[in-house]
Write a structure and sequence with these properties.
homopentamer, mainly alpha, 2 domains, elongated
Chain lengths: 261, 261, 261, 261, 261
């Protein structure tokens, strides 16, 4: 569980509720079904026009990634590569096949099998980088999906407010109802802003971060696999891969390595 | 038929109508011919200044692509390439000419004929990639056409509202008509927002998706054709091209391959 | 004459006039000299700060390109290159000099003369591509000039409205004049929007299209000239250059070629 | 201490306070706890959704960099490289190891140790440039963090104002309280603008400047280290590295060099 | 003197003054010291947070470039290169040293001295292009400085208006003063728009143009210097460099060359 996403969504909602109560407003006023319908309905209708149905489902599904903690740890990747490099040195490249069988990461596994099959270094890099490029593209599509929602939210909020305003202005017979009617008209704009600024834009930002982490892991793997194939010294490989770590993570990694020794 | 586009446009319109009725508004109020004229007329006038007439017609025509289902399936492309690779291996490159005659895809056909003609690999790649680049450019022009509409919609909506407001303010003699007049003035802004957020932006998004799918198919073809020309092993070719598939599609493809075996 | 530009500008103006009359407004109200002065004056003043005078004049002059029909036809370019390739094959590269003398296009002419002078292929490509790059840069500067106007229009429209509002609010003695005064204040915003959305943005879009067409022609010429210099087969050259055409144009070209045969 | 940041934040706050007093406003009116809660609470809630907790803490921590003066001076870097080059010339590359021990800069130190270890030039450049690329990426993430705040500020300011307006409009019973209530509703928009335009955007700009300075130093180091490894003449190295300095700094550097001679 | 900048600033101010008088407004109303303080004070405070003090001073100083006429003429550069090429041909590369001494342009001078020192072509290009890249970066920083002001202007204008509005709404006791107070509140928005649209954005645009001209001159110099070093024919060099000129300038250059012959 990525606890920060939950904290953010819950606390944001609570802040809004407190703000309403503190301002002596009625909370139920802010729960207006016609407003819910036009804003959410409008967004979903626009998404249907924007995306073929499978992409639409995939887009919503990626939303759940912001709740899950990324399991992979960059230092783990380096340790694993290091292990592989040591095995390859001692027992030859073919010995990697067995290790690959027990691996969880399909990308690393595929890379090892390609090495064992004797794939040429150039081709190996090209196959793995093509795969990374496509993973990145799919991630970008999903980030754009949530950015679309972030743009559609305020837009449909404004459409809802316009509908409310036009109806209100067309029918000014009873001025005493003007205020409450306008209050209701503004609720759609409020919904649109909340969707954009508490949900969709933040989700898109978090997806971007998770994506760049995953891509980084895969790049570390590619560099590591190519070094293993080239028969480089495990120590040099480790040094090379550590360039991919942030100074903080690198320190953690170095401490861990020392403890293990 | 791309059913999602229809669902989106129809449901979006229905949501707006329900919203009007639910808000106790008169639906006919929202059908205002002068407003239709200034918003749609203004957009089309601006498009005439922006685009030469043939481009304008082409731009509108591409709109229909969002209603049609893309027929090509990436796994089909790989199967076809695989078949070609097997034929080339067994019967030589010249045997491909006959197969090419029966092909529907002009791009793949052209590529095969260039191979049969003994075109140099470098030149083959350059010709096919130039073609892809130009296809991509034409697609981008069409996406921009719909993005232009998405920007012109709210802009002409605002121009219409300004005209209505100026006339209304210039003639404040009867305050009781103020409300309805302002209601009408706002309808153009409503139209502009609907055009942008239910039609033009979503169409542009969908065109972008369809374009990147088509480009992907063509890239798979280019890689496949070059591999065939180089006389690579059909199994290696298949492995290489599978890097272009998403994990989901790849699984579908692998399952299909197994069933066929 | 690029008839679409005229149609757009004229019809856009007519739509606005009809909209005013239909809304029971007085057309002369929308012709307000102080408003004209502050919006147009402000835009021009800002352009003077933005551009040195020669660039300013050049920027405005390029506006006339949107009224002129691009004469060059991509299929013509290919035919001409083909002709040159045939002459070069039959009579040698030197025979091209005479043909170059009668040419209208200075770019193609320059390229041929460089070939006749025996310029090295690398250098030939570099000289011609540098020239294309600079043509493209000059075009981009001119597109930006009109984009500047498109941004300055609404900005100075708002400045005019602010001036009007401030004066009006400062002097609320006679409330009956409030409406008409505010109407007048809004006219500058109306002008600014019209300049941006009927004139400047569309002109910039059309300039971009015309530019990319011209650049495309020049790129076709460069590829053709290099192929001629390399002594490639005229048929291969034609096939290569056809990759630059859109499928529609290519079909027109093929039909024309057949008729000519 | 980067005094300019302090000057800016303090003077900006003072200008606002003077402006309130000069306008005969009550300063305490602008300190409204419910407004503080919704704007700051909303921003922080959205940041929790956007960033995993460690990134969130890191993002806020980088804010302190805008208060600290960058210690490294580009001319110092060149002097240091020059010294290293002289030592390497006189006593051989191995003599650099000892010098590296006493170095403060971990990047330069790492580079020297890699040279001493006899790392291949290609690999040396690749390791160091990978490290620079990752430093740059981390810096960009932090700039984006503050840009996120700059966008969330006005957005949550508007959400606060909407909540206030909706409550006010829903309850128009006492028109005399309308003004003060609307005043309070606008305070959140005021907070949002202040956060964006006095704090978050400026901090992001300063982080960008500091980052590009640091990257520049690192690039100078890489060029210098590679030149040292290649055994280039110290004078040529100095001339080469001076290209990285601005004319002003270069003059300072030349003057200093002369004084030292 | 770049007369166009003066014309623009003066005429823009005059247009605004005429607009005020024509609208029967009082010009002194638009000179409001509290408004001046909050807008200019706020912008400067934000710039202090954004930039370290030396960068801040440099940023403002570059503003004066928009008043100075660029002295260098591209045709002059080509003539000078031509001269150098002739001398090099006749008297050898070493003869260039003397000519370099009398040169005003430090970039060209440096290039010649590097040639005379026998610098390798690869290194020569790399040193000069690094220098160009850094000049370009410094120019971009300065353009961004003025773009920052263009964004801060309207933002602080809005902050000023918000302060004015909040004070006004909080104190609605005397409705007759409502208009004038709101008029004053809007003056900061007016200032912000003027700063952005008459001063800062246009200055940034002009700086961009001046920068690209200077970069172009430097690129012509690099190409010329490399050709001289390679001992190319002066006529070929001239032809090559002319590709960098716009058709208009090229014609002027050709006419001048003829007159000189």
């Amino acid at each position: 569980m990525d606890i920060s996403t939950i904290i953010g969504l819950v606390s944001g909602t609570i802040f809004v509720i407190i703000s309403i109560i503190w301002g002596e407003g009625r909370v139920p006023l802010f729960l207006n079904w016609p407003s819910v319908m036009i804003v959410f309905g409008g967004i979903i209708a626009a998404l249907f026009v924007s995306y073929p149905i499978p992409k639409l489902i995939e887009g919503f599904k990626t939303g759940k990634h912001v709740f899950s903690k990324q399991e992979i740890d960059p230092t783990d990747v380096i340790s694993k590569i290091n292990e592989l490099a040591l095995s390859a040195r001692k027992e030859g490249l073919l010995a990697l096949e067995e290790i690959a069988q027990g691996m969880e990461d399909p990308f690393l596994q595929k890379g090892i099998l390609l090495i064992v099959d004797g794939t040429d270094a150039e081709l190996l890099r090209s196959i793995l980088e093509t795969e990374i490029a496509f993973v990145e593209n799919r991630h970008k599509d999903n980030q754009k999906f949530w950015e679309s929602i972030a743009e559609l939210g305020p837009a449909w909020g404004m459409i809802g407010t316009l509908i409310g305003l036009i109806i209100m202005l067309d029918n000014l017979s009873d001025p005493s109802t003007l205020g409450p009617k306008m209050a209701v008209a503004l609720i759609t704009t409020f919904y649109g802003s909340m969707i954009a600024n508490l949900v969709a834009t933040p989700i898109s930002t978090k997806l971007k971060l998770k994506s760049s982490e995953e891509i980084l892991h895969k790049q570390v793997m590619v560099e590591g696999l190519l070094s293993i194939q080239a028969g480089e010294n495990p120590r040099v490989i480790e040094e090379k891969l550590k360039a991919f770590l942030s100074p903080g993570t690198r320190k953690v990694f170095d401490d861990k390595s020392k403890t293990e020794e």
